[in-house]
């Protein structure tokens, strides 16, 4: 049915088959990814409906995951998608990520590593580069604020303890939690992650700022240094190897 309508605009389709009308009548859950994209695109291109442009976007980029990861230039390279439409799609995706992120505002108490994962996973999982963040906490382990310390490449995020703890001292933080993503989707900490964590814990000890955890976020899963009991273990190992 869809192929027969390839050369016709959606406005020429029967109302019962138009994506927007179907969404209003039956809800968004019944629509395909391409049909949802069509609602955002609004119009297609010469010879192709918005639904078919949506199908091409998904085909070229590798589905919704690819769309979430692609850049504006990649989107604009698809016929029928200019800067305005690309911006609309990216804005909608970002709103979706923020809606999925649980509330994590000033004064919120951190009770588990799962709380942090649930909040940050939607915004970190589709990134193509590493982001290293610090969550600053007060003496009762309530959130003061969070901050991005470093934006790295696909495989490396360069973090210096001075940058991290200068911010913590400025905000009078009593404790900190670190987290970063692995673009590969595998949250298994690398040797570099382990050494960096040991250095940060050691620097925190000198300053009297406790490092409560370091989360490595992957695709749908994470690893918590605290949950694994690694914070003190890796410090001892690093000191034994002369890495601290």
Overview of the structural elements:
By secondary structure, this protein is an alpha+beta fold. 45% of the residues lie in helices and 14% in strands. The protein is built from 10 helices and 5 strands. The chain has helices spanning 19-26, 33-41, 50-61, 63-69, 72-76, 83-100, 113-124, 161-170, 191-207, 230-240, and strands spanning 131-137, 143-151, 175-181, 210-217, 222-224. The chain has a 5-stranded mixed sheet, with helices on both faces. Helix 3 (50-61) crosses helix 4, helix 6 packs antiparallel against helix 7 and helix 9 (191-207) crosses helix 10 (230-240). The longest helix is centred in the middle third of the chain and has 18 residues, at 83-100. The radius of gyration is 23 Å and the shape is elongated. The N and C termini lie far apart (66 Å). The model has no long low-confidence stretch (mean pLDDT 86).
